[in-house]
Design goal:
Layout (H helix, E strand, L loop, with lengths): L18 E5 L2 H9 L13 E2 L2 E2 L1 E7 L4 E4 L3 H6 L4 H5 L3 H14 L3 E7 L7 E6 L5 E8 L5 H10 L3
Length: 158
């Protein structure tokens, strides 16, 4: 997502960095995109954003970037964060956390946290100014794609 279009996301701070939201679990990435449509009949238009088709890709991150791992209880204690504060849907709160973590951890390339859809699915927010990412491969998400089907089943999209 271009930085100019950011501002509403969980860890967005477009005045300081661009946030690239990725997942360690491909199904999670698709579920995150379709979650706003829970309970509705599936439509192909759900697979577009701003008129552009959604795709799933594999990324290669240069080096071995350090992450602030909010799935680690010791990190939560050190950062004075409670799990409920990390998992909240209050974007003002999560954006403030991300800004604070970005400022406090000069070497951190991003934040690792859990999905609100399934806690065992780990997500990563990468700070564009601290990491280099290469797209290794990608595939358009279309109706009938196995990940789209699995996400629809998980989210109750008929």
């Amino acid at each position: 997502m271009p930085r100019a279009l950011q501002g509403e996301g969980r860890h967005d701070a477009p005045d300081r960095y661009g946030a690239l939201y990725v997942s360690e679990v491909p199904l999670s990435a698709v579920c995150e995109q379709l979650a706003p449509f829970r309970g509705r009949p599936f439509r192909a238009a759900m697979l577009t954003r701003a008129g552009l088709p959604l795709a799933i890709g594999r990324l290669r991150v240069a080096g071995d970037p350090a992450l602030v791992d909010l799935d680690d209880p010791a990190v939560l204690v050190a950062e004075s964060l409670r799990p409920s504060e990390v998992a909240t849907g209050d974007r003002r709160s999560t954006q403030a956390q991300a800004r604070r973590l970005f400022a406090a951890h000069d070497g951190a390339a991003g934040i690792r946290w859990w999905s609100a859809i399934e806690a065992s699915w780990l997500q990563v927010t990468l700070f564009d100014v601290r990491v280099r990412v290469e797209v290794v491969d990608q595939m358009l998400l279309v109706p009938g794609h196995p990940l789209v089907e699995a996400a629809c089943a998980r989210l109750g999209l008929a």
